[in-house]
Prior knowledge:
Number of helices of chain A: 2
Radius of gyration of chain B: 21 Å
Number of domains of chain A: 1
CATH architecture of the largest domain in chain B: 3-Layer(bba) Sandwich
Strand order of the largest sheet of chain A: 1-4
Structural class of chain A: alpha+beta
Largest sheet of chain B: 8 strands, mixed
Largest sheet of chain A: 2 strands, antiparallel
Bound molecules: flavin-adenine dinucleotide
Oligomer: heterodimer
Distance between the termini of chain A: 6 Å
CATH class of the largest domain in chain B: Alpha Beta
Helix content of chain A: 10-25%
Largest interface: A-B, 20 and 29 residues
Number of helices of chain B: 12
CATH architecture of chain A: 2-Layer Sandwich
Radius of gyration of chain A: 10 Å
CATH class of chain A: Alpha Beta
Strand content of chain B: 25-35%
Amino acid sequence: MIKTDPELCLRCGGCVxxxxxxxxxxxxxxxxxxxxxxxxxxxxxxxxxxxxxxxD
Amino acid sequence: MIDMKSYxxxxxxxxxxxxxxxxxxxKEGLRVLMVExxxxxxxxxxxxxxxxRSSLERMGLEYDPVWARRPIIGxxxxxxxxxxxxxxxxxLGWVVERKIFDxxxxxxxxxxxARVQARTEVSSVLKEDGIVSGVKLSSFxxxxxxxxxxxxxxxxxxxxxxRMAGLNTTLKPTDLVAGFQYEMAGIEIDPDRIELxxxxxxxxGGYVWIFPKGERVANVGIGVRKPFARKTAKEYLxxxxxxxxxxxxxxxxxxxxxxxxxxxxxxxxVLDNFMAAGDAAHHVNPIHGGGISxxxxxxxxAGEVAAEAIRxxxxxxxxxxxxxxxxxxxxxxxxxxxxxLRQVAERLNxxxxxxxxxxxxxxxxxxxxxxxxxxxxxKLLIKKPRLVTLARKLM
Lengths: 56, 395
Ligand SMILES: Cc1cc2nc3c(=O)[nH]c(=O)nc-3n(C[C@H](O)[C@H](O)[C@H](O)COP(=O)(O)OP(=O)(O)OC[C@H]3O[C@@H](n4cnc5c(N)ncnc54)[C@H](O)[C@@H]3O)c2cc1C
């Protein structure tokens, strides 16, 4: 699973589009991550502001 | 308000792709519903707001001063060593106010007869016997089902709606640019020209841009890409701005981030009763990341095909394949060629970029972005043994 820092996240949704498991979704409250997550780090590497980290 | 339980066409997302689809379908007399999950169409922007005159022409729309912040009369493209290539014209395009531009488009959709509803999300896709039959909407705490004959996913880079429908639109990490931008004020810029800065230290896999919106105000942004980037987009931009005396003491009016699809063009963008357009289907120019006009045109073609399908009573994937064909003829072939140019450009080191800047003109660069004139670049690359295989990609 991943967690996003709400202070950093600008809710752009790019990570959602690049998640190979379709595990992420974007709402006004930010990014949420589902059980489908395999901790592959693709979203972590993408994030333009470094708001995402693994949460295990 | 949404007063009907069924529409001919439901469109998810009210960006340029959604409005392009809504305008085209509503003009043909279809009952169209376009929903947008954000509370305000076009805001916050995920965009540098550059729109060329040729892009506006491609969209088939007329200039309107309501959305134009600044006319652009030139472009300067900087190589890593600071040498630049200029392109001058009278009226190359504009830096627009996206928040106004997107609403202006949505207003045209409403005028054409579409129902437009902000703060309303497609929360799931309904299916009957495995085939798309409608959507579940949620808005202000309410949730209800709406049936449709065709669903068009124009939901931008997130592209969840396509995946809910059963079309895999997931981007490869190398095909998604990480973008970050400040709208800055009180800065020293050339207010009439857009500036682009290239280099593997400055913006690996992308570039830095300055798009002026006034005498002393501009969008200053960056795109970078894995596997080339070693820091976040924001870190690259902050580091670059720190080296620019005219910018580093500027004010920040807005901060934006976003993902820009620069590849992953899809052979198939349809299912039974379903099409995808715009960023959701990766309709972006892969060399500069411009997607406003590509999204609108992709949406427009989808909207036109939706009208034909409903008129002829056949909304199967086999019928909607017309959309694939028309999009590939009108845009896809060109964008695919430009994608190959992207693959070449990202392999060039800074010395090679500096060297090319000696030989290429502004006109050449504009041609490249329109999939023309690749022969000249190939001839140059062939002179360097390391670049011969890259040159072949362009031929
Ligand atoms: C940093 C950056 C700079 C850029 N600069 C430029 C530029 O200068 N010029 C240019 O031409 N292009 C630029 N682009 C690209 C351009 O912004 C996009 O290509 C364009 O906005 C795509 O339009 P669209 O309609 O496909 O998607 P969007 O404009 O993203 O619209 C999609 C809409 O769908 C909504 N949505 C998502 N999910 C749902 C749902 N489930 N239900 C309802 N609504 C939903 C979203 O909220 C969004 O409003 C830039 C992009 C970025 C990130």
